[in-house]
From TrEMBL:
<protein>
    <submittedName>
        <fullName>TRAP transporter substrate-binding protein</fullName>
    </submittedName>
</protein>
<dbReference type="InterPro" id="IPR018389">
    <property type="entry name" value="DctP_fam"/>
</dbReference>
<dbReference type="GO" id="GO:0055085">
    <property type="term" value="P:transmembrane transport"/>
</dbReference>
<feature type="signal peptide">
    <location>
        <begin position="1"/>
        <end position="25"/>
    </location>
</feature>
<dbReference type="InterPro" id="IPR038404">
    <property type="entry name" value="TRAP_DctP_sf"/>
</dbReference>
<keyword id="KW-0732">Signal</keyword>
<dbReference type="Pfam" id="PF03480">
    <property type="entry name" value="DctP"/>
</dbReference>
């Protein structure tokens, strides 16, 4: 071999190595939008520790930069738009709050469609593949899992003994379908982000607000309100979605590991959510055992069979008819897909 060839051969090999894709060998930084700190125990005890330990647990070549949403100055209604810009790689997505940008998010959580955790899980699991395909197409993000905060119920500054008592009251809501339901009861719905509710209740901007009992406790709504009505309208769904750009930077086996980690997390949150719901109801009343929140002196109003029946009739009578044309406007097959996937579970034909 000539002297020139002896020097050129290693250089050529080096050039080939440099020219090969290096994505898989490099560490990937994943910037995460987390749940607001104010939402409480699920964010604090499940979500944040999960992301802090994700790299070590999975062995993936990732560095996770996790920031709760209320420390970023991002509104919970802007998550999909922010993800579409590519500024973040993964989001703890608040479904109802982002439903104006993507109405199919409400398909997991129509008002009246979650009489219990088991039924809610079946309906959500049935709809999630359709939702995942939609999010990938419209926003370039892949759904990794979903979970509920738990039954979303009324908290009021005024006495409330039955649903009809909200007539004439101003009630904080998170989506248009809930707004239509409350309007049908004679209330005035007020769309509002979670972080603004405490002040709005204090100043009398709203008389009541809808959330789960654990979130109400964590955000100290329960130091202002006097009554809670433990009748769930929705489940307060959230989920995790990763940008397709970040997802495709992982090898197939790495994708499997990441998906498995999120499946384990969301399964755990489903169980934890139900535990928190029961404990928070007791904490809000000032009863024992109270292990996950602070004790307050909120009055729990009994739920009447008539109100249970009323909420149970809402999906077929109001929620689906109100949601279907909104979702079909942006996705023509939306309501038909929902009827096929979720309708049999909730008895909607």
């Amino acid at each position: 071999m000539s002297l020139i060839k002896r020097y050129l051969a290693p250089l050529a090999l080096s050039s080939m190595v440099l020219a090969m894709p290096t994505t898989y060998a490099q560490n990937i930084t994943i910037k995460v939008i987390g749940q607001p700190l104010a939402t409480g125990n699920i964010q604090k005890n499940r979500e944040q520790p999960f992301f802090e330990q994700l790299a070590a647990k999975t062995g993936l070549p990732i560095t996770v930069e996790y920031k709760p949403m209320d420390t970023l100055g991002i509104k919970d209604t802007e998550q999909l738009r922010v993800m579409k810009t590519g500024l973040f790689d993964l989001v703890s997505l608040r479904f109802s709050q982002n439903s104006r940008d993507e109405p199919s998010l409400i398909g997991l959580d129509l008002v009246g469609g979650s009489p219990d955790y088991a039924t809610s899980r079946k309906a959500a699991d049935a709809w999630s593949p359709v939702l995942d395909a939609r999010l990938q197409k419209q926003f370039g993000i892949k759904l990794l899992g979903h979970w509920p905060f738990g039954p979303q119920m009324l908290f009021c500054k005024k006495p409330i003994t039955q649903l009809s008592d909200v007539k004439g009251m101003k009630v904080r809501v998170t989506d248009q379908i809930m707004a239509k339901f409350l309007e049908s009861l004679g209330a005035t719905p007020v769309p509002m982000g979670f972080s603004d509710v405490h002040q709005a209740l204090s100043l009398g901007v709203v008389d009541c607000a809808v959330t789960g009992p654990s979130s109400a406790n964590s955000a100290s709504w329960t130091e202002i309100v006097t009554h809670q009505l433990p009748l769930g309208f929705q489940m307060g769904f959230n989920g995790y979605a990763i940008s397709l750009k970040t997802w495709t930077r992982l090898k197939p086996d790495q994708q499997v590991k990441l998906q498995a980690a999120f499946t384990e997390l969301t399964n755990d949150i489903w169980k934890y959510s139900e535990e928190l719901y029961q404990d928070a109801l007791r904490c809000n009343e000032g009863k024992d055992p109270c292990t996950t929140g602070k004790k307050f002196k909120v009055i729990t109003s009994p739920v009447s069979p008539a109100d249970i029946k009323l909420v149970g009739s809402v999906v077929d009578r109001l929620s689906f008819p109100a949601w279907a044309p909104v979702c079909d406007k942006t996705n023509p097959t939306c309501s038909a897909d929902w009827k096929k996937a979720v309708g049999p579970i909730l008895g909607v034909k």
